[in-house]
Design goal:
The chain is an alpha+beta fold. It has a 7-stranded mixed beta sheet with strand order 1-2-3-4-5-7-6, sandwiched between helices. The chain has one domain: 3-Layer(aba) Sandwich (Aminopeptidase).
Length: about 180
């Protein structure tokens, strides 16, 4: 795959259907085999409604970018700052809230491209650090973040349906 053929597109309100599709597909690919169908459905039905996605895309403190190969969406990233961050809500921080790539494209630097976009925005905004939360058992993502200079600074509870999971909070300083 030639990565110069991948375009990063800022997601607008007209792209909610495409965002919903890539969001559900990548979440299922990543986590369906590790969780009950009920807990997956509970999360997906709450997180990926048209209304919720529309609100998120319209939030001036959030930005979504989709990675597109020709006409196909193969991954996306959501970054949030200020009050749109899920926790901390520190003006000095920027959250990489979601970063997801279709399984068949893993290991081809698509995640890196999406991550670099987040880093670029954080640098432009003169943020001090980038942070994120990641499930403690998500070894792939943990390796990716460690490779990108993140370190664990805390851990928080996260409910996936009725399953209490631990998210590791990771941070990378920019200056
Ligand atoms: C995490 C994720 C976004 C990484 O994207 P990717 O496109 O596969 O990663 P890249 O190909 O861009 O890799 C970038 C660097 O990270 C490293 N890396 C990526 N996955 C890795 C793994 N599983 N183990 C070790 N290193 C890894 C690569 O080696 C690469 O470094 P290199 O240039 O020195 O080789 C992707 O695996 C994914 O979508 N996973 C499922 C969804 C998910 O868990 N998202 C995170 C939720 S918190």
């Amino acid at each position: 795959m030639n990565n110069t053929a991948i375009q990063l597109i800022r997601v607008g309100t007209g792209d909610v259907n495409a965002l919903k599709e890539i969001g559900i597909n990548t979440f299922n690919e990543a986590f369906a085999h590790l969780n009950t169908p009920e807990n997956m459905a509970h999360y997906l039905n709450a997180a990926f409604t048209d209304q919720k996605l529309l609100e998120e895309v319209s939030n001036p403190c959030s930005e979504f970018y989709m990675a597109r190969l020709d006409t196909r969406v193969i991954g996306y990233v959501k970054i949030s700052h200020g009050p749109a961050q899920t926790e901390l809500k520190d003006e000095a921080g920027l959250e990489i809230e979601r970063i997801y790539v279709l399984q068949e494209f893993h290991g081809k630097k698509v995640g890196q491209l999406l991550f670099n976009k987040g880093l670029e925005i954080a640098t432009q905004m003169k943020k001090t650090y980038v942070w994120l939360g990641v499930w403690e058992h998500n070894a792939k993502a943990l390796a990716f973040y460690k490779k990108n200079g993140f370190e664990v600074f805390d851990s928080h509870d996260f409910w996936l349906g009725d399953d209490l999971q631990i998210d590791l909070m990771m941070k990378r300083y920019l200056i």
